[in-house]
Amino acid sequence: MQNGLPHTDYDALAARIKAWGDALGFQAVGISDTHLDAAEAHLLQWLADGHHGAMDYMAKHGAKRARPQELVPGTLRVISVRMNYYPQQARSTPEVLADGSRAFISRYALGRDYHKVLRNRLEKLAQQIRGEVACQCRVFTDSAPVLEVELAQKAHLGWRGKHTLLLSREQGSWFFLGEIFIDLPLPVDAPQENHCGTCSACIDICPTQAITAPYLLDARRCISYLTIELKGSIPAELRAPIGNRIYGCDDCQLACPWNRFAQKTLEPDFAVRNGLDDIALVELFAWDEATFHARLAGSAIHRIGHEQWLRNVAVALGNAPTTPEVVAALQARSHHPSGLVREHVEWALQRHSSG
């Protein structure tokens, strides 16, 4: 016999798990099996085409990402959860994007690091399950090779949109995903049907044309990849389209009609910190390393480090309206010890001198 009890009522247990998840602040909880054969084929082709760019860890894990039982031996089911993150008080994204002197930061990163918040809640849920029945389970929050969108779709939490993110008819896409791998034969939910139809709004809006076909993202062109995952120089031809986006990009989500139904989060951990929803690029560029660490400790942004932060802000300043303040801010960093920073500052200053 596997873990569990001889006479465990798994239907009742699944219902309790979903109720516990709701009480812990998750907006949806679903259960899926571990079969991801079709997704695995798509993943391997995506990697073969080089769409992962410099994200070597994607290729390193390869097919393991699509095989939950290899990641955690004994896994029979995956419990997937959704948690809304769009903050209540954030300034309107279109307004920020329209003001080239301000910094745009993807709305998921304005508050506390979601990895910590979701992991804590998932661990509590796992503890409740273990307290009910003998089992082995392990939680994940974008912290291991997991095909979370595919698993969430199988668990009826939504469907993969043409921008490759998960979409929900009730909540749009402004949410995080997390998983619990478990060795119990819980009843599974029916996969969610796709409701994108003929809409191509997310493809049309992408500033760098990173969505090369429906459901296909070339990460090498994606602004989220360029400002977060890419550690080196941003390709020169992609710098101007970045605009004032210094950490991530939400354009494809903003254009999606389903986000008309999205609900803002009630989680205090995701509330805006340090005024990052509406702050001047010049002010951010003046942050020294100590200030960067002090202000962004506990934030997802902190992970990129001060050097990459300055690189990103330099590009945004190169795209900003030419003012004495912008030029002076760039000139003040023109002799920065980092060659990466100097390269992007020089590009930005050339933009203003030629304008």
UniProtKB/TrEMBL annotation:
TRNA binds at K231. The active site is at D142 (proton donor). It is found in: Cytoplasm. Its EC number is 1.17.99.6. GO terms for cellular component: cytoplasm. Pathway: tRNA modification; tRNA-queuosine biosynthesis. SUPFAM superfamilies: 4Fe-4S ferredoxins. Keywords: 4Fe-4S, Cobalamin, Cobalt, Cytoplasm, Iron, Iron-sulfur, Metal-binding, Oxidoreductase, Queuosine biosynthesis, tRNA processing. One of its GO terms (biological process) is tRNA queuosine(34) biosynthetic process. [4Fe-4S] cluster 2 binds at C206, C222, C249, C252. InterPro entries: 4Fe4S_Fe-S-bd (IPR017896), 4Fe4S_Fe_S_CS (IPR017900), QueG (IPR004453), QueG_DUF1730 (IPR013542). Gene3D superfamilies: 3.30.70.20. Cob(II)alamin binds at R65, D142, L166, L177, S224, C249, D250. Binds 2 [4Fe-4S] clusters per monomer. Residues 184-216 form the 4Fe-4S ferredoxin-type domain. Its main location: cytoplasm. GO terms for molecular function: 4 iron, 4 sulfur cluster binding; cobalamin binding; epoxyqueuosine reductase activity; metal ion binding. Its cofactor is cob(II)alamin; [4Fe-4S] cluster. [4Fe-4S] cluster 1 binds at C196, C199, C202, C256. It catalyses: epoxyqueuosine(34) in tRNA + AH2 = queuosine(34) in tRNA + A + H2O. It comes from the Bacteria. Catalyzes the conversion of epoxyqueuosine (oQ) to queuosine (Q), which is a hypermodified base found in the wobble positions of tRNA(Asp), tRNA(Asn), tRNA(His) and tRNA(Tyr). Monomer. NCBIfam families: tRNA epoxyqueuosine(34) reductase QueG. Belongs to the QueG family. This is Epoxyqueuosine reductase. The lineage of its organism: Bacteria, Pseudomonadati, Pseudomonadota, Betaproteobacteria, Nitrosomonadales.
